[in-house]
Amino acid sequence: MRVITGRVVQGRIELEESLEEGTSVAIFAADKTGFHLTNEDEEELASALAAIRGGAFVDGRQLVAELKALKP
User: Fold this and answer.
1) What's the domain count of the chain?
2) Which of 7, 48, 62, 68 has the greatest number of CB atoms lying within 10 Å of its CB?
3) Distance between CA atoms of residues 30 and 45, nearest Å
4) pLDDT by residue for the chain (72 residues), tens digit each?
């Protein structure tokens, strides 16, 4: 995993580095205070992404259904 920054220009994301065609990406948008990751944050993010790629996730529709089922 690499962390690459960029900006939105006319509705498109322009990166500071090139990525190979077909590369999967996850986008985290900075707020007005910025976006900073510690080494530990990057490691946790990489671990979470690896778990997701391995199938350890809950589909959004499934999550909504489970949350609705919790309502009394």
Assistant:
1) 1
2) 48
3) 16
4) 677 888 899 999 899 888 889 888 888 787 888 777 888 988 898 898 889 889 888 888 888 898 899 977
Closest-CA residue to 53 (of 32, 34, 26): 26
Which residue range is the domain that position 61 belongs to? 6-70
Residue 3 CA: distances (Å) to CA of 16, 38, 42, 65: 11, 12, 8, 33
In a domain, 14, yes or no: yes
- Which segments of 1-72 does DSSP mark as H helices, in order? 39-53, 60-70
Residue from 66, 62, 46 nearest 54 by CA: 46
Partners of residue 52 on adjacent β-strands = none
Residue 57 covered by a domain = yes
> pTM of the predicted model, to two decimals?
0.47
